[in-house]
Design goal:
Low-confidence stretches: none
Number of strands: 37
Strand content: 35-45%
Number of helices: 8
Distance between the termini: 64 Å
Helix content: 10-25%
Structural class: mainly beta
Radius of gyration: 29 Å
């Protein structure tokens, strides 16, 4: 149970609202229940709040508390203007490379999983001549018809939440059409508010601003903006920023996303209302339709659709019954053989699809994949598995003339820049001679690995196994990863086969 229990005492602390904005007042209740056999003496109730907050409370709560009785105190807390938005303390400052900067954080907090609570309720009682203190995080309590009582930590959020979608775009240099960006504005404040929504980009044409107005809290509106690339710009990077300017002069350019799963604490993350746009020379393969089997935590299909590729998600029914010959390529997401039972059951249909001329591109899988022999030719993955943890590790091309490295994009050394976190994982350790390894790379002071990208002919078609971390690099908008992945899809064309 969430309620603290000590010596027959149950203590609780609750707020009337789960999300707070600057200038808002929130009602708080702290409550003590004497569940034991002895009389207690309530000395005082308190609320711990950050610097700058004001708390007014009920001072008429001291005195004896008999067994079976409860005592309640009411407080009002006011959020100051300029209050810190709630998020993990290690996200408050920009990272230094790959490292979090928490140099401004008190030593007692550094290294902890979560921030201290925004507000904490406390009570001091006397029991049998001993003074006892109890503390409890102030939370918002509600009932869910499916799960019962739910406790939601309180958070400080912006009065206007502003978020841009998509927030990361790779823009091919040959794409002349404008792109649509949507800006979602949510009113978190109770008071009516109106203003103007504007977007801007460094030197790019600026779309006209749009008006917004909200009469109540919790309401969202979505605004669409058409953005055009400047003429003559064929490479570079630009930051598109959205700002909500209220009629009384306030400016909002951040939003909050929540990490929310049943097994962890609900955790907010403050994100800037911006999109990272990268313009790069990108050529597309001649594909009419690409099938995709989603893997674990897989955001690659959305990245491909954002590029403009015609992608269709393959369901279990499609894998079982659909005519797969209509797909120019079929992509298997990372670890999909673990998460998709229908893929395991109908892998034979994918092999038949390849024999008839299809291209099957399999992103990294784990040990079940090799144990069950799902690849068309034998391959193994080592224990521990082969991976390249240094995202800057140099890459050596083993077959410079191979189509995968030349068409429709010529892969060069700068295409390996900007890959996030790692080069890849679950590389093949050994493989049948039917496969051609195309790349070699190594971590510092370790042996080189060649199993990160294997290509093989199979019947009339082609098979690709890759441990390269496309599942990170494509959603991150790495132009070189996009160019290489498009080249792999191009292997499905007859002229691209070795």
């Amino acid at each position: 149970r969430a309620i603290a229990v000590s010596a027959g005492m149950a203590f609780d602390a609750r707020a009337s609202e789960p999300r707070l904005v600057a200038g808002q007042q929130v009602s708080l209740v702290v409550e003590l229940y004497n569940a034991g056999p002895y009389e207690l003496t309530v000395e005082r109730f308190m609320i711990d709040a950050p610097d700058g907050w004001t708390v007014d409370g009920d001072s008429e709560t001291a005195g004896p508390l008999s067994p079976g009785e409860r005592r309640r105190a009411s407080f009002t807390a006011k959020v100051p203007h300029g209050a810190r938005l709630t998020q993990p303390y290690f996200l408050d400052r920009p990272r230094v490379g790959a490292l979090y900067d928490w140099s401004n954080v008190p030593p007692a907090v550094r290294g902890t999983s979560f921030d201290p609570p925004v507000l904490t309720g406390r009570v001091v009682v006397g029991l049998l001549g001993v003074q006892i203190g109890l503390a409890r995080e102030v939370s918002y309590r509600y009932n869910d018809q499916a799960t019962g009582e739910v406790r939601d930590p309180i958070h400080v959020v912006p009065a206007l939440d502003v978020q841009v979608t998509p927030n990361r775009v790779v823009w091919p240099d040959g794409a002349e059409s404008p792109r649509t960006f949507t800006v979602t504005v949510t009113n978190n404040a109770a008071a009516p508010v109106g203003g103007e929504l504007v977007i801007s980009g460094d030197g790019w044409p600026v779309p006209s601003s749009q008006r917004f107005a909200f009469d109540e809290a919790g309401v969202s509106r979505v605004f669409a903006f058409q953005v055009s690339r400047p003429r003559g710009m064929d490479a570079g990077q630009m930051r598109l920023v959205a700002r909500a300017r209220t009629d009384d002069g306030r400016v909002f350019e951040r939003g909050v996303r929540f990490v929310d799963y049943p097994h962890i604490r609900r955790t907010p993350r403050v994100i800037p209302a911006e999109a990272d746009i990268r313009v790069a020379p990108i050529r597309f393969p001649d594909v009419r339709l690409v099938g995709y089997v989603r893997g674990a935590a897989d955001r690659v299909p959305e990245a491909l659709v954002e590029l403009g590729l015609p992608v269709e998600m393959l369901t279990g029914d499609a894998l079982a019954h659909e005519d797969l010959s209509g797909y120019d390529a079929i992509i298997i997401g990372s670890r999909a053989y673990e998460t998709d039972r229908s893929l395991v059951e109908h892998n034979g249909r994918l092999l038949a699809y390849m024999r008839a001329g299809g291209l099957l591109l399999v992103q990294y899988q784990q040990y079940q994949f090799v144990r069950s022999g799902f690849a068309p030719y034998p391959l193994t993955i080592g224990r521990p598995h082969g991976r390249i943890t240094d995202e800057h590790a140099p890459v050596t091309v083993l077959e410079p003339g191979h189509a995968a490295l030349n068409a429709p994009n010529t892969i060069a050394s700068d295409d390996w820049e900007g890959w996030p976190q790692e080069r890849g994982l679950y590389f093949a350790e050994s493989w049948d001679e039917a496969y051609s390894p195309l790349l070699e790379m190594r971590d510092p002071d370790l042996e080189p690995l060649r199993g990160g990208l294997l290509v093989a002919s199979y019947g009339e078609g082609m098979y690709v196994y890759t441990g390269l971390s496309f599942f990170r690099a494509l959603p991150a908008g790495v132009p070189g990863a996009v160019r290489l992945f498009l080249n792999l899809l191009h292997l499905g064309s007859a002229g691209a086969r070795p």
